[in-house]
Amino acid sequence: MIKYLVSLACLLPFVSNSQDLLNLSNVTGNMETNLQYLNSDTLIGAAAPEQKAVMNTYMNVNYSLGKFRTGVRFESYLPAVAGYPAFYDGTGIGYRYAQYAGDRLSVTAGNFYEQFGSGLNFRSYEERALGLDNVMDGVNIKFLPIKGIQLKGVFGKQRYRFDDGKVELSSGVVRGVDGELNLNDLIKKFSASKFKVSIGASFISKYQKANNDTIEIPLNIGSYGLRANLKYSKFYLNVEYVKKENDPSTQNGYIYNTGHAALINAGYSTKGFGILLSARSIDNMSFRSDRSVVGNQLMINYLPALSKQHTYNLAGTLYPYAAVPNGEVAYQVEVLYKIPKDSKLGGHYGTDIQLNSAIALNPMRHYSDVDFAKTRIYYKGNLFDSSDSLYFYDFNLHIYRKLSKKFKASLHYFHFVFNNDVNIVTKNAHGNITADIGVAEFQYTAKKHSIRLELQGLFTQTDKGNWATALLEYTFSPHWFVAVMDQYNYGNPDPVHRLHYLLGSFGYSFDNTRFMFSYGKQRAGIVCIGGVCRPVPATNGLTFTFTTAF
Length: 550
Fold this sequence. Notes:
The protein is mainly β.
């Protein structure tokens, strides 16, 4: 790929002497470096690697000429930062592609990311904070035959590992097509209607050679999806359903059950008020290009989170919830309301209130007397048929208020019930963990100066007991910022581990470049993005982050 790019650059001056053609060419890119110098700390469970210093670095370089585009991503893990999967190691090219993007046709060869609908059937994406990258390697075609119709096709293998500076692909091959019709664009009489309708369908399949001598393994496994997006005035409804053929794997115990997933989002919004209702039912929906792999790698589909993704430290990293691909039934409701300005309760600037609640339950499974050894069909599961066994419950309330032109504040309350036997986040508890969290945030801004204070408290009688967190951040726009955060596990049952986790940081930014240094202790926890999670180990040391774009 490097030889290809160099050759292309050398040939450009001879392609044409036209200055207009050269003006069409463009080089863009970005770079990110995360470097840690780590110390051992037995009290918090932090272990320093032999090298002491670890680093993740990424650099994207893209070249475009008219409708043609090509690029590479260099990656370096020497070794990877704390908590990253062990198979990220070495330096090399982790992503390369060539693309033609016309008005109606787009063709990509090499690496690409793509998604069908909400991703229930297929999603190829990268999330660096999770160490997740299931990028496709093959061909991606998008075609718009007429206005209102969009067709997609994918064919290739998924990235599995980046070991010793080389990309290792999955053993299975992924193939799929997707189509979407926008009826308002297709039907002239419907174009001006307030009723907006689009429908879509997708099919994705994988092929993998059999690697089990005990049972018969299907080599080709398909998954079918239908979806519809409806909107009228201030109302909307999104529905998607996926049916997957029997896919025996390590994660499901090599059963022959089929899988299904359904996602429903309905909402209403007007000035000062909005409501969102969501429901999801999934059963046996772990779909990978390699049946023997577990964890976050090689997922063909994506199960989006139904619970709210919290950003505050204690709420977001101690007891977050990830979807259970083997099966769950979940519901969510969110209400947003703005108390009007200059009212008795709303104050001069008004007050925003946000209420959210989500619950996930174990699905009801109906077992029969059929001989499992012969059929390998373990149970029957129906859509939205749930038991009373709780996986997760989340209730949270947020109040935001601007008190003056320079001062604003917010209050937040969270109530969690977390089934630690389903998604294990701690070794110190079994069954349900109940926790209550309160957060108060204050921010004062004057010209180029801004000061923000966060006070957080977590209260629980299980696991490691109560926590308190304080964060003070000062920003001098547009370049400098400095912050200090302390997390204190004052309620730990073991007095030896009633520790402070003090972390200081400062940074500088200009144009598209940002530097940040932080030093101190960070506790072990869980990081979740979009319902996908990974554990983060405790660390003690220096972290340097650098990002730039060009």
